[in-house]
Amino acid sequence: MPVDRDGAEASRRLRPPGLGLLLAEARGLFEFNASLFLSPLLMRAPKGDGHPVLALPGFLASDLSMAPMRRYLHELGYDAQAWRMGRNLGGLTRVRETLRSRLAEIHAATGRKVSLVGWSLGGVYARDLALQAPDMVRYVVTLGSPFANDVRATNATRLYEALSGERVEDFSELREAIAGDLPVPSSSIYSRSDGIVNWKTCLLHPSERAENIEVYFASHIGLGVNPAALWAVADRLAQPEGEFWPFDRAGPFAIAYAPPDPTVSA
User: Fold this and answer.
1) CB 3.0 to 4.6 Å from 90: which of 114, 118, 164, 224, for a disulfide?
2) pTM
3) What domains appear along the chain, each with residue ranges and CATH number?
4) Nearest of 209, 266, 214, 217 to residue 242 by alpha carbon
């Protein structure tokens, strides 16, 4: 019997989040307010060792969107750095060289490896940077970043292609590399209630140095200011350089995390 490859491929395709989840993204404002209210609890997170952290904004966002994250990490003792490239209008291949130069600048100025925290598209950039320059990268944390499976399964794909001039189908080898194992420790923070990207596009392959962390009920636009997500970022960055242990879902935000599921992977 002949195999219908097109039909088989279509059956594997993921769909973007539905209209209900998309409209519910407005709750991101409440997540930000919750972080302000719960700031005393957030400051109980493990303290940093002063190493640099480069915060990469999502699609259509600028350094302003990462300001709460940078401020929080600075208060915990990290050298939090902005990407200084204006608004993120997409174009993975277009920004690669400039972004790597920014990473090299921070690495040279501090003399230390740089952790990368990327929100949405910024997380895709972060994973690519870790592949390009593992000698300069210490750790990668992504927040709602669509780098795996069918990466077209987002509600921003068409706009991304229109503004960046890139088609998601292009550069298949690069996309496969970004979705694969990284040479540095990494954590992917995501939510099944994400209204912009299908949560399955955020799943990395769990390993001895890589994990997925699910946050209940978080929105896409609020994930970078969600108190449980902020705590998880701080906890992951506090690990000594070169070491990795699984995220401990205990603590003040324990109720916000799904238990680790070994069956969930890219």
Assistant:
1) 164
2) 0.94
3) 25-256 (3.40.50.1820)
4) 209
Distance of alpha carbon 121 from alpha carbon 164, whole angstroms: 12
Torsion angle in degrees (nearest 10) through CA of 147, 56, 222, 199: 10
DSSP codes, the chain: ----HHHHHHHH------HHHHHGGGGHHHHHHHHHHTHHHHTTSPPP-S-EEEEE--TT--GGGGHHHHHHHHHHT-EEE---S-S----HHHHHHHHHHHHHHHHHHHSS-EEEEEETHHHHHHHHHHHH-TTTEEEEEEES---SS-TT-BTTHHHHHHHH---TTS-HHHHHHHHS--SS-EEEEE-TT-SSB-GGGG----BTTEEEEEBTT--TTTTTT-HHHHHHHHHHHTSPTT--------STTGGGBPPP-TT---
- Bridge-based pairing state of the strands 114-119 and 210-214: unpaired
Cβ(126)–Cβ(189) below 8 Å: no
pLDDT at 265: 65
141-193 pLDDT, tens digit each: 999 999 999 999 999 999 999 999 998 888 788 999 999 999 999 999 999 99
The single residue listed with the structure tokens 């390009």 is 132
What is the sign, positive or negative, of the torsion defined by CA atoms of 154, 158, 159, 163?
A: positive
What is the structure's pLDDT at 170? 81
